[in-house]
Design a protein that fits this description.
There is one protein chain. The protein is 25% helix and 27% strand. The protein has 454 residues and is α/β, with parallel strands linked by helices. The strands form 4 sheets. A 10-stranded mixed beta sheet has the order 12-14-13-15-16-21-20-19-17-18, with helices on both faces. A 7-stranded mixed beta barrel has the order 1-2-10-7-4-3-11. Helix 8 crosses helix 9 and helix 10 packs across helix 11. The protein is elongated and about 90 Å long. Keywords: ATP-binding, Glutamine amidotransferase, Ligase, Nucleotide-binding. Its EC number is 6.3.5.5. Pfam families: CPSase_sm_chain, GATase.
């Protein structure tokens, strides 16, 4: 049993019996999961993963336990509460405010491989000219908890307004320090991502008696983070882009607006097909969890393919949804690709770029449907990092070209997409003007006039 104070907070937290007794949903038929079985870790010395680190005076004790049986004990610097989620790790060296507020981390306990976390604190909630938070990728922390090796209690940065611990406490997010994250990551790389439970108190959670294991990713996480009704940003932009919100990051919207686009943010399940004429281009955003729950989006995209000839660009979850609509399958990666230092090969130029990534699923490009091409490949594991249509301006990437927080190698892709939208709109305008001239002047006079205008 855990302490009385932790218990009272725990009762108010997400981990109610009703929630944890909820049965997992089945995965949709378009998804074909792991290509191979994850290797067993039975040969690993389990005592290695039971290390107890000293808890500093005044600190609460915190526990991270995995469904596979391993327990890590350390100090708590977050909220005095408990949560469950898929335990995943990120190799990002910086950018913890951006990562923690990335909607793609919804339902996950985030483990930082960078040993020292919290040294530059947390910035203010300042907003830009588009009404977006400057330093965060959404309005709140999205992950279920964080795990670090060494939490820096004394932060120092010119724009910091509070510590990481204060931010977590204010947001109701549990956080643990003093964990041997190196051995933890070795464990997850060996056996794959697994469910984790994070709590404060003298004892770990008694899972099986008071609570049951529950996988937040077994539900539709995209629906939880997507906007509920359409919203317009930068209404005076020169082109109108329909942005399908599966869990969009703020910097995607910002970069589109800065490229002089009017951005119409649409819920993930919004029926945008009757409105396609209003959009000069479509953008499919990133998002959390399994793409199998976004069947409505996939069906809308399939209808769009039949009648739409303007640019479509997808990133991360958008890559998977565009691929599913095009006939690809999707499978779950053993432990995902997450971090700001993932190498990707451009299959057209053979150039390697360093990318920001956060995904647990990937397109199966071992069989490429007719009309589609592979465009990018992960240099580490060979998984798909992008596709494009062979004749239509439809393309997507698995990584994050908006690069918040870094690197900047592929940020040009956002601008390139907007330029493609502008170019297609110009071509359509010229074609409509030519048709008007033909109707009013006749083919011969129309041709003379168009030659003169050029």
């Amino acid at each position: 049993m855990f302490s009385k104070s932790a218990s009272s907070v725990f009762t108010k937290a997400r981990l109610s019996k009703a929630i944890f007794n909820k049965k997992s949903s089945s995965v949709g038929s378009p998804i074909s999961y792991q290509k191979s079985k994850i290797s067993s870790t039975s040969s690993i010395n389990q005592d290695l993963f039971r290390a107890v680190y000293p808890v500093l005076p005044g600190e609460l004790t915190a526990h991270l336990q995995l469904k596979t049986g391993q327990v890590f004990t350390g100090g708590s610097f977050g909220s005095n509460t408990a949560s469950m989620g898929e335990a995943v790790f990120t190799t990002s060296l910086v950018g913890y405010p951006e990562s923690m507020t990335d909607p793609s981390y919804k339902g996950q306990i985030l483990i930082f491989t960078q040993p020292l976390i919290g040294n530059y604190g947390v910035p203010s909630r300042e907003r830009d000219e588009f009404g977006l938070l400057k330093h965060f990728e959404s309005e709140q922390i999205q992950c279920s908890g964080i795990v670090v090796s060494d939490y820096c209690t004394k932060y120092s940065h010119w724009n910091a307004v509070e510590s990481l611990g204060e931010w977590c406490q204010r947001s109701g997010i549990p956080a643990i320090t003093g964990v041997d994250t190196r051995s933890l990551v070795h464990l997850l790389r060996g056996q794959g991502s697994t469910l984790g439970a994070l709590n404060t108190g003298n004892e770990k959670l008694d899972i099986g008696e008071e609570v049951q294991w529950f996988d937040p990713t077994s539900g539709n996480l995209v629906d939880q983070v997507s906007i509920k009704s359409p919203k317009v940003y930068n209404p005076n932009g020169s082109v109108n882009i329909g942005l399908i919100d599966c869990g969009v990051k703020n910097n995607i919207i910002r970069l589109l607006c800065k490229s002089n686009a009017r951005v119409t943010l649409l819920p993930w399940d919004y029926d945008f097909v009757p409105l396609l004429d209003q959009f000069d281009g479509l953008f499919i955003s990133n998002g959390p969890g399994s793409p199998s729950f976004c069947d409505t989006t996939v069906k809308n995209l399939q209808k769009t393919f039949e009648i739409y000839n303007r640019p479509i660009f997808g990133i991360c979850m958008g890559n998977q949804l565009l691929g599913l609509a095009g006939g690809f399958n999707v499978y779950k990666l053993p432990y995902g690709n997450r971090g700001h230092n993932q190498p990707v090969i451009d299959l057209e130029t053979s150039k390697c770029v360093i990318t920001s990534q956060n995904h647990g699923f990937a397109l199966d490009d071992s069989v490429v449907p007719d009309g589609w091409l592979r465009s990018f490949m992960n240099a580490n594991d060979g998984s798909n990092e992008g596709i494009r249509h062979s004749t239509k301006p439809f393309y997507s990437v698995q990584f994050h070209p908006e690069a918040m927080g870094g690197p900047l190698d592929t940020m040009y892709m956002i601008r390139r997409f907007v330029n493609d939208v502008i170019a297609h709109k110009d071509v359509e305008w010229r074609a409509s003007e030519a048709q008007l001239f033909d109707t009013q002047l006749g083919a011969e006079e129309s041709n003379k006039l168009q030659m003169a205008l050029q």
